[in-house]
Amino acid sequence: MQSEARRAVVTGSSSGIGRAVTDRLLSDGWQVVGVNRGAAEIDHPAFTTLRADLGQGADVDRVAAMLGTPDAVVHAAGVMRPGQLGELRHDDTELMWRLHVDAAARLANPLLPRMAEAGRGRMVLIGSRVSSGMPGRSQYAASKAALVALARSWAAEVVARGVTVNVVSPAATETPMLVDPGRTSAQPKLPPIGRLIRPDEVAALVAFLLSDAAGAITGQDLLICGGSSLPR
């Protein structure tokens, strides 16, 4: 008798990295629950959507209460708002913090303990290669750096109970975020490999981290940067 398909929750599944992760997991036989503000145009019998504004804490809490005990959670929803010193906007800081950090914490707070109780589970947070700092990206970098601290702290709490927590941090990736009107003044820097990172490359790494083979990898920030982090 075939075992029941594993169930993953993917935020931001309607586009970009979240969509690529969703497509990869569906092709690997997962059931996927996408959490998005809008509808995800994915026609697959193993895919369902929960509508939520991940920038609103009460909405995240509402959805988290509906998710039961998933086998995996991938927090891929994100936004970029660049800003130089002297032009930083509090609204941008608040938006990125709520969407990247607060939403991750509101999902992890109920879901990771449920996974730990079940003795199994995976969580992957989509970070950024610029989390160590970059001119004109201070607010964005800070929110992504916070994900690394959260992941390492949570991983330490559940490491002995069959649950892993990791961050995947891409360099500039070919997604709709690159043409977001909010960042037109700050174009991405091409990685040394001579092209942007592909979303399916990020999805492949995420899929591995969700697999049984990655059970000994936890609390890590894994870069997929096309050589951007190499000394030059």
Key words describing this protein structure:
globular, 232 residues, 5 helices, alpha/beta
Describe this structure in words.
- It is a single chain.
- This protein is of the alpha/beta class.
- The chain has five helices and seven strands; from the N terminus they run βαββαβαβαβαβ.
- Helix 1 packs across helix 5.
- The chain is globular.
Topology:
Elements: E1 7-11, H1 16-27, E2 31-36, E3 47-51, H2 57-64, E4 72-75, H3 90-118, E5 121-126, H4 138-158, E6 163-170, H5 199-209, E7 221-224
Parallel strand pairs: 1-2, 1-4, 2-3, 4-5, 5-6, 6-7
Helix pairs in contact: 1-5, 2-3, 3-4
Average pLDDT for all residues: 92
- By DSSP, the count of extended strands is 7
Distance between the termini: 54 Å
Q: What spatial form do the alpha-carbon principal axes imply?
A: globular
Label the structural class: alpha/beta
The share of residues in extended strands comes to 15-25%
How many helix segments?
A: 5
Biggest sheet overview: 7 strands, parallel
- How are the strands of the largest sheet arranged? 3-2-1-4-5-6-7
**From the alpha-carbon coordinates, what is the Rg to the nearest angstrom?**
17 Å
Binned, the helix content reads: 25-40%
Write down the secondary-structure element order: EHEEHEHEHEHE
Uncertain stretches of 5 or more adjacent residues: none
Would you summarize the structure shown here?
The protein is α/β, with parallel strands linked by helices and 232 residues long. 35% of the residues lie in helices and 16% in strands.
